[in-house]
Amino acid sequence: MAKTIGEVRSFLDSLIGKITVDKSDSGLNGQCVSLIKNLLEFVGAPNPYAARGNAKDIPNTYVSQGIAKVGSGTLNIAVNRNGGGGYGHVWIKIGSDSWQANWNGFAVKKNVGEVAVTDILNLDQWISTSNTTNPEGKATTLGTKGEALIKKFEGCRLTAYDLGDGMITIGWGHAEPKGQTSLVAGVTTWSQAQADGQFQKDIVTYVNAVNSYFVRSFNQNQFDAMVSFTYNSGTGVFARDNWDKSASNSYITESLANYINKGTIFEEGLRRRRQEEINLFNTPVSGSEVTIKEDEDMTEFAILYGTGVYYVCGTKMVPLTTATQWSVLRSVYEQVQEHKTGKATPIKVMDWRNNQATFDAYAKICGLK
After folding, report:
1. What is the largest CA-CA distance in the chain?
2. Catalytic one among 41, 136, 147, 154?
3. Which end of the chain is less packed: N or C, by CB atoms within 10 Å?
4. CATH, domain 144-282, list 3.30.390.30, 1.10.357.10, 3.30.428.10, 1.10.530.40
5. Has 338 been annotated as catalytic?
6. Nearest 5 degrees, angle CA 177-CA 146-CA 220?
7. Low-confidence ranges of the chain (pLDDT < 50)
8. Is 306 left (phi over 0), alpha (psi -120 to 50) or beta?
9. Whole-number pLDDT of residue 26
């Protein structure tokens, strides 16, 4: 079975501090190549080097043998043909993270800096990239709801235009930097087919950005909401703002609400878009079905709904009828957490006051509806 990007991340992290070259064999060379060998074996790809070989030769060898494909993807091999004293240097990249090993006998390190990239290859054919939600409820590509949401807010304009943001835009929000594009505002026109085709090409970058950054999984509605946000905010938003890679649902929805460019002419439109993304993120994938296992750290939490508060533990939902009960619950929860972990962590709170569908679905499986 193909590995997920989360499994690949975990495997690479497990190598940190370890030496990948077998030092008992003096014929082995290329510590950085040996790291790639480990990765290929993990994902089930063939390895022509058996740890030997020069890093600078990897692009020609791997592409011609069908092991890797040219271009950036979710799981990448970055190459510098001039590094390593002329033998080249290679490292692994997933989003903004990188793993590399330098010279024989040095341990694998993460995010220690990179040299100039001369070639970028991807190993996406060896990882799980299903077009639909898999049996575990994990989505890795954009669904119909996400595409509809993006197109609703982006709109489609078949003549290029200038918003004054340093970009020339056309189609479904396709933008290129001024001075680096053949697009001319008010002059360049596209057919609808061109706009639709470019959208399908562009969206891959934003899908990859979500897949490569987070180590947690998303159901289809959650994933669609995240891709819409990324399409609007840029692929570097998560790394730039130091998002938690294993972010809980509440962390994500609370964070999304902050991206509204407050005080600008775009604020109201962004506020509406963020709210629709949050609503989609919180919507169960199928009608009344809610899978508690999707976010195991949320099996005990509180819900704000209507004018009341509900305490949830697993599949039990208890309405709190007074402010005193709510205050006592929070206090006791923090005391229990402090006893268990040494830290008085507050109970997680889900604000579903504007999300009746999600509340009704959860209440149903808890036996309240």
Report:
1. 74
2. 154
3. N
4. 1.10.530.40
5. no
6. 130
7. 22-28, 51, 130-136, 287-298
8. left
9. 43
